[in-house]
Design goal:
Elements (H helix, E strand, L loop, with lengths): L7 H16 L10 H4 L2 H9 L7 H23 L4 E5 L6 H4 L6 E6 L1 H14 L7 E5 L7 H7 L9 E4 L8 H12 L6 E7 L7 H16 L10 H10 L4 E5 L1 H8 L14 E7 L1
Parallel strand pairs: 1-2, 1-4, 2-3, 4-5
Antiparallel strand pairs: 5-7, 6-7
The structure holds S-adenosylmethionine.
S-adenosylmethionine binds next to helix 1.
Length: 279
């Protein structure tokens, strides 16, 4: 992160979710606030680009990972979970769309990004829902435990966490300290996150795509720095207290969310995977 500055990638991925609302049918991820929260200038530019120039595979991954995380939240709510924590929330809009009246939502983010989002919310006229509490936390220098404690989070009750588009920007220590915190919460808790696959595991074209994307985000001051080999990640999550894991990549996600579409929207690369870990 650029110290003291809001995340630029947060705006970038939110624009992809907005583009999904405009360009793809059927929608995988329905978000009536997606266009509004990116701000009027970006919304106008997104509408002007709706001829398909925005990379469809990247856009599909943004939509699929949010859908996956919110599907997992719905399962958690059925199991009785009443706390949802959106880690590295960026311009996520779940709190404004929540269909669960007694669910408490916590948005955790890098303080400058959260400040920027709150300003954006004022500018676009989106009032803070009563169910939402903001918790500013820098995963590198502060503990999630303390940030959530100050926000009124209950550590004696289970919670569902999502952590989308964040882990690849962190150090291994910051990642592990957050995972250890969630792994110590009551049974019934869980986390859904996406992660970048170790370069050595990728094919020629995927390496080229990763390098291209890596250069872009590094130029924004948010370089990728954390990659995993799937079996090693699974082993370390088990050691951290998670006993029910689902690790899904392109093929499983295409089959689950993008099968039999007339528009051909697909995930094409294998750089990003989604992990769902419950305890
Ligand atoms: C690519 S954006 C994803 C935002 C959101 N989850 C989404 O999918 O739209 C990355 C997010 O990670 C957050 N982030 C990156 N490094 C962080 C850190 N050290 N502490 C807290 N948040 C961090 C950024 O502030 C930003 O909100």
């Amino acid at each position: 992160m650029n110290e003291g500055r809001p995340s630029r990638t947060a705006q970038r991925v939110a624009v992809r979710r907005a583009a999904h609302q405009l360009m793809d049918r059927p929608l995988i991820f329905e978000d009536p606030y997606a266009m509004r929260i990116i701000g009027p200038d970006a919304a106008a530019a997104t509408a002007a680009k709706s001829d398909g120039r925005v990379s469809s595979s990247f856009r599909a991954f943004m939509a699929v990972r949010s859908r996956y995380a919110e599907d997992e939240l719905a399962h958690a709510v059925v199991r009785g979970v009443r706390q949802y924590v959106v880690l590295g929330a960026g311009l996520d809009t779940f709190a404004w769309r929540s269909p669960f009246p007694d669910l408490r939502v916590f948005e955790v983010d890098y303080p400058a990004t959260q400040h920027w989002k709150r300003q954006r919310l004022v500018n676009v006229g989106m009032d803070q829902p009563e169910s939402l509490t903001f918790a500013p936390v820098d995963f590198e220098t502060q503990t999630l435990a303390e940030g959530l404690r100050l926000a009124g989070f209950r550590t004696d009750e289970p919670a569902c966490f999502s952590w989308l588009g964040v882990t690849m920007y962190l150090t291994a220590e910051a990642f592990q300290s957050t995972i250890s915190f969630i792994g110590g919460l009551p049974t019934g808790s869980g986390v859904t996150f996406d992660y970048a696959v170790d370069r050595a595991e990728l094919g020629f074209f995927e390496k080229a795509a990763l390098d291209h994307l890596g250069r872009k985000v590094a130029a924004m001051g948010e370089p990728f720095q954390l990659f995993f080999r799937p079996p090693e990640l699974a082993a370390s999550l088990r050691l951290s207290g998670f006993n029910d894991l689902e690790d899904v990549g392109r093929d499983e996600l295409n089959g689950r969310y993008l099968a039999e579409r007339a528009d051909g929207l697909r995930l094409r690369g294998g750089i990003g995977r989604i992990m769902r870990a419950r305890r």
